[in-house]
Amino acid sequence: MSNIERTLSIIKPDAVERNLDGQIKDMFLSNGFTIVQEKKIKIGKLEAEKFYKVHETKPFYNDLCTYLSSGPIVVMTLEKENAILANRELMGSTNPKDAKEGTIRKKFGISIDKNSVHGSDSPENAKIEIDFFFNS
Ligand code: CMP
Asked: Which of 36, 39, 44, 87 pairs as cysteine with 77 (C-beta 3.0–4.6 A)?
């Protein structure tokens, strides 16, 4: 049975700053994703704090929110069969050091903070994250 899903992808400030957004979008397209919605924006710290609220108790929360609001980002709704898992596989491990060859984070990530992309981790969060950027 088919399971077409949508997931939220963010090309983070480190990648946009290095003009990698075109190459990263090409990787999504060549891996069968459709870019359903897309916008380039810069968010404020408060918005970043709201977006990453699930991580608010983590020691890296403040730096993470400062970082996501530090420069332009590209947010996209991606669609594909099993898009959420497929996107996580294409991104690779959170820490680029652990990411497999051929993944976005292996290719472009600089560090666990500057790891170039974000992707939703579950169908529930995908809906929340897509609504956050595109239906608010
Ligand atoms: P992302 O998928 O955007 O979700 C939360 C982000 O927190 C993660 O990518 C990392 O960039 C960042 N982060 C920083 N330190 C850690 C850590 N120790 N564990 C997980 N994520 C971290």
From this structure: 36
pTM above 0.90, yes or no: yes
The residue segments making up the domain with residue 50 are: 4-134
> Cα–Cα distance between 116 and 95 in angstroms, integer?
10
Of 73, 75, 100, 97, the residue nearest 88 (C-alpha): 100
**Candidate of 94, 105, 115, 118 to mutate for ligand 1, largest count of ligand atoms within 8 Å of Cβ:** 94
pLDDT of residue 7: 98
Q: Which parts of the chain sit beneath pLDDT 70?
A: none
95 Cα to the center of ligand 1, angstroms = 8
Q: How many domains does the chain have?
A: 1
